[in-house]
């Protein structure tokens, strides 16, 4: 049995293990020096923000799998409470991420009944830590039945400005102005990141998604910055497409896209469309990279309140995000181990949760993954 | 203080009088006819494949003996045929005929000193605030989703398309998205009225109020206020990103969707892609006075210009809707049924639907299937 399993695993294509993300700019002289990495005795410490909804159960499963795979990572759990007067918990979370430099998080629920001055905690986290690049990899899995096959799109989304600037005001009663900010510095930065990442992953083509025919200055500036950066990378083809045409092409022929680069709101829309194309929000992992920090979460950032604590959430997205985190920390063998186990369970053993058409519970899927890992590790399987 | 108050009172009263006059006009006059009994309709061929599609419409109307005469206005921003004078001529024509059929006027990307494109100016001046795209699966043309039937209603005059941008500091651009209570209430009421008139059960507001709390929050609040006036219609809301994901996995849960400008643009195109692309979905724009008919997903499709490969289905179905608006039910049904019959038979299909026929062959097939 052990040999058969090992044979099976050799045949699984480990096509989704990415190289580590490129480190770009050196810190400007005025910023405080980065704290030394939290690695002692070979063990890393990582901040864990369980969040709300399905976040706590999924991050709990990640810890179980890590324990099973003997991953040298310790989690510092930080709860964020998104109530009215409580900025202290968010500040605590921020300092935890600053001191550990890497975090794994579930989505924190935004309370819509609070006055507009209270910004979304997820958004505050991203802007305070300057996590300027959001990278989501949407890939068709052979074991998941979808209407489109052969999808392999890397989405790079500017994560800090654009429509999410939180600058709104009501100068006249009944008339609201919402500002969308595009800056040259951030557009150049995200374009540089995208081209470097594409080169490292061996991708051929980057498509910038915009609406510069209507927002001529704003998206025009973004497009111009992308073109400037593209001229420095002659080995990568660069083209652009308007967002409405992009969404139509995505639902008819998504195989034409390779890497997509875009400002904040279009990134939100396109990443959700692509996640829907490959099987839903339970499958795509997402990563937020800044110059100093990296935060990993599910690709589509859902709280999943309606399926919380029902044991039907899909752990794949969170587990693949944790594999991305292990890759970022340099623990590539552990990352491959967990990723292989997840892929074999989903594609070959076909033990899937209801959102992708199976009938297994979350606990069953996680147990199967742990069993595969322990067989590989030659340790006692979980009971 | 008192002068300002009096000025404000005068403005409000003038607006109320205008609204009342508009209401009276709406109740009294149906479409006007020429002396020879034909209805005049303004036609704007536009750019790209627009002229070819308009030609198809004219041929089909001629064969069906539809009592409509077209007043053509050739206006184009990219071919230097757009001036203020032409815009005024076009506006006066539409104000007379009150119905128009148009192709897409291409918007150039470069900033040549004007932020608002010609089409946007036209929409603002005619106050075409509501865009309705009825996304319906065509029988006989299978796509990945079966039996889709949803309506996308989009606010068309404000939002992200306000053309208000500036660069106050070099390298930092601010682009303003404007949401007003008045226009949000108007589009919400339009959506609920549309649902009531067409027997729809549910209206879903699409927004991003978790991020744009004031802007989209105002829009959502206006929709909720309007929903109180329609107790028989279910109202709920969904965030734009989740909506896009649901549309590609389970689009049958939606009935009528109402949303601000940019989200409407994205969802129109996405939904059109679900049932077969930009060539099969008709769309219409309404103000309180005027109705303009065009395709649902607006693209000039310049690559196909002159190659005779564009799909006339969307424009023909839109023209049929226009005939229904003009109270020409008989002709409207004739044209629409002919188009659907050709698609159902599946022998003559253009390139985008997987066939090899040209536009002219498709139009000829529709004409031969017209039955009285």
Written description of the protein model:
The complex is a heterodimer of chains A (383) and B (372). In chain A, the strands form two sheets. In chain A, strands 1, 2, 3, 4, 5, 6, 9, 10, 11, 12 and 13 form an eleven-stranded mixed β-sheet that branches. A two-stranded antiparallel ribbon of chain A has the order 7-8. Helix content of chain A is 39%, strand content 19%. Chain A is α/β, with parallel strands linked by helices. Chain A has eleven helices and 13 strands. The longest helix of chain A has 18 residues, at 184-201. Chain A has helices at 2-11, 55-68, 88-100, 121-128, 184-201, 218-230, 243-252, 264-278, 316-329, 332-348, 362-377; strands at residues 39-40, 43-49, 73-77, 102-105, 133-139, 152-158, 168-172, 175-183, 205-210, 237-242, 259-262, 285-289, 294-298. Chain B has 372 residues and is an alpha/beta fold. Chain B contains eleven helices and twelve strands. In chain B, the strands form two sheets. A ten-stranded mixed β-sheet of chain B has the order 2-1-3-12-11-4-5-10-8-9, with helices on both faces. Chain B has a two-stranded antiparallel ribbon with strand order 6-7. In chain B, β11 (282-286) and β12 form a beta hairpin. In chain B, α2 (50-64) packs parallel to α11, α5 (181-197) crosses α6 (215-227) and α10 (329-345) packs across α11. The longest helix of chain B is centred in the N-terminal third of the chain and has 27 residues, at 2-28. Residues 21-29 of chain B have low confidence and may be disordered. The chains are: A alpha/beta (383), B alpha/beta (372).
